[in-house]
Write a structure and sequence with these properties.
Blueprint (H helix, E strand, L loop, with lengths): L2 E6 L37 E6 L10 E2 L6 E2 L2 H12 L4 E2 L6 E2 L2 H12 L4 E2 L6 E2 L2 H12 L4 E2 L6 E2 L2 H12 L4 E2 L6 E2 L2 H12 L4 E2 L6 E2 L2 H12 L4 E2 L6 E2 L2 H12 L4 E2 L6 E2 L2 H12 L4 E2 L6 E2 L2 H12 L4 E2 L6 E2 L2 H12 L4 E2 L6 E2 L2 H12 L4 E2 L6 E2 L2 H11 L6
Antiparallel strand pairs: 1-2, 3-4, 5-6, 7-8, 9-10, 11-12, 13-14, 15-16, 17-18, 19-20, 21-22, 23-24, 25-26
Main location: nucleus
Subcellular location: Nucleus
GO cellular component, one term: chromosome
Length: 398
């Protein structure tokens, strides 16, 4: 009697190989095809000895020659190969865009038809893709599963983490074709391109003012509706968002775990330390998309953007005057209080800004650190230098 050894694979525990839906290419990285489960575990094999029967044909596997991922489904293997080749067989009938997978095309078509089948049970917001709904739900749950291994910051979406990592690597792959300026993410590039076109598509429904970016409009609207529901119980300062209050409370706790390796100054938050490092390196990576001016800190940029929005959110406690920059408000209030004025040690004159006092002291010392690059003439203040430069360029005088 002949005995034939047959290995029967228990496929019930083997997760079905599938391709994860890809988000729109503008917003997300290409999601890798999910690997099949580990090679069939030898302990899952059941060995039977069957008399006089032929063995079942072995399960065929397809291995990618570039990344060595394995598939039992030929169609999914073919789909995967297109990730490497860049081949896009599925074209949109509404626009010129094409995709590597039919499922991705179906998701994209919803952006034309307006269909949003994936709805959030908590707030009712709907989405064209299941992945977008999954990301949105994390806003409600506060789940941030994607963590930066370098600084510990966490993100709702994997794509956001990937963009954030470029802060550490310095990579700026998105380049403006008109001026050559580069950016860490495509959204910033698109906002920058509007500087060249002068396009301002975001309009305030309250006052009609227009903005080049949605973030600028959102900030502008806060000052129309002005409610600050989150209040600090220690100093009564109020905030628009709970996250702002949470950050503020650490100031009262006086915890400063982040220390500068150059000057030993310490900070409550890592991003404050990162901003501080730029005072040593001279780096300015916060760029205004309205005018292109760059700043070393995000809050400097935010206050600068008030010059574009026309908003003066910093109101004096003693009079009706308001200011676009918090530092200007502090200096102004010293006029009312007389506190913290800066005194010239030579003549006793007082100033509301330390910078103004330093400019004044050069009257006594004769120091002129601001040099004209064209003729070499020196000036005590940068404003005097700017006035002088106009003499070299008559067009600026008119």
């Amino acid at each position: 009697m002949e005995f034939i050894k047959v290995e029967i694979v228990d496929m019930s525990d083997l997760e079905q190989c599938r391709v994860k839906d890809e988000d729109t290419e503008e917003q997300r990285e290409l999601v890798e095809v999910k690997e099949e489960s580990q090679e069939l575990n030898e302990h899952q094999h059941q060995v039977h000895f069957i008399s006089g029967e032929k063995s079942s044909p072995p399960t065929q596997t397809f291995t990618c020659p570039q990344c060595e991922k394995c598939f039992t489904c030929k169609e999914l293997f073919s789909d995967h190969i297109r990730i490497h080749t860049g081949e896009k067989l599925f074209s949109c009938r509404y626009c010129d865009k094409s995709f590597t997978h039919n499922g991705h095309l179906k998701d994209h078509i919803r952006s034309h038809t307006g269909e949003r089948p994936y709805r959030c049970d908590q707030c009712g917001k709907s989405f064209t893709q299941r992945g977008h709904l999954t990301d949105h739900i994390r806003i409600h749950t506060a789940e941030k599963p994607f963590k930066c291994q370098q600084c510990g910051k966490s993100f709702i979406q994997k794509g956001h983490l990937k963009s954030h990592m470029r802060v550490h690597t310095g990579e700026k792959p998105f380049i403006c074709q008109q001026c050559g300026k580069s950016f860490t993410n495509q959204g910033n590039l698109m906002s920058h391109i509007k500087l060249h076109s002068g396009e301002k598509l975001h309009h305030c429904s309250q006052c009609g003012k227009s903005f080049s970016g949605a973030s600028l409009l959102k900030k502008h609207l806060l000052y129309h509706f002005g409610e600050r529901p989150f209040s600090c119980d220690q100093c009564s300062q109020t905030f628009f968002f709970a996250s702002q209050l949470k950050r503020h409370l650490k100031v009262h706790a006086n915890e400063r775990p982040y220390t500068c390796s150059f000057c030993d100054k310490s900070f409550v938050w890592f991003h404050n330390l990162k901003d501080h490092y730029k005072t040593h390196t001279g780096m300015k990576d916060h760029v205004c998309f309205e005018c292109g001016k760059a700043f070393s800190r995000a809050n400097y940029l935010e206050q600068h953007q008030n010059t574009h929005t026309g908003i003066s959110p910093y109101k004096c406690s003693y009079c009706d005057k308001s200011f676009k920059v918090s530092g200007s408000l502090k200096a102004h209030e010293r006029i009312h209080t007389g506190e913290n004025l800066f005194h010239c040690l030579t003549c006793g004159k007082t100033f509301t800004h330390s910078g103004h006092m330093k400019d004044h002291e050069r009257v006594h010392t004769g120091e002129k650190p601001y040099k004209c690059p064209q003729c070499g003439k020196g000036f005590a203040t940068s404003s005097n230098l700017q006035i002088h430069k106009k003499q070299h360029c008559p067009k600026l005088l008119h």
